[in-house]
Structures are given as structure tokens and as C-alpha cells.
Amino acid sequence: MRQNREKKFAEGGKEKMKKYLTPKEVEEIYGLSQKWLANMRWEKKWIPYLKVGGKILYRPEDIENFIEKHQVKVISE
Asked: Is residue 5 part of a domain?
């Protein structure tokens, strides 16, 4: 997942990671819809976010921690 994020924001052949992501970028990179993110903000659940000048921002590590935390372990027989 981190590789996708790094590639998404590569500039001039160098890998550059953004420090914060907009809801649109979260949706594009991680597949979490903007509507779902908005609902979670309204309910004040799960993923921390920043609100700066009316703009919503997420830290990539918070998104990745959320995804890892909600991973379902499958036991094979």
C-alpha cells in the first residue's frame, strides 16, 4: 500500500510522499470513499483527521493504521 502512495506522488523520478492527504486522495489511493470518510468524521469515529481553514486532511499513516487494524485474519484448514 505504501508503494502505491509513493508512486502516486512521484515527482521528477524521485519518490516523494505527501505528509497529508485530502479525502479525494484517500479515495484514489486506498479506496475509502469520500462519503464514507465524511460519515466517519460526522460520527467522530475511527480515523483521526485535521481541519485546517475548512479543508479536511488525513495523515497517510493514520489511514494505513486503520486498514491494518481492521484486517480480518483467515485460518486455513
From this structure: no
Domain count, the chain: 1
Tens-place pLDDT, residues 17-58: 679 999 999 999 999 999 999 999 999 888 999 999 999 999
How far is the C-alpha of 17 from the C-alpha of 67, rounded, in Å? 18
- What's the confidence (pLDDT) of residue 56? 97
Question: How far apart are the C-alpha atoms of 77 and 2, rounded to whole Å?
Answer: 31
| Residue 25 to residue 32: CA distance in whole angstroms | 10
User: Could you tell me the pTM of the whole model?
Assistant: 0.71
**71 is a domain residue:** no
Q: What is the DSSP string of 22-69?
A: -HHHHHHHH---HHHHHHHHHHT-SS--EEETTEEEB-HHHHHHHHHH
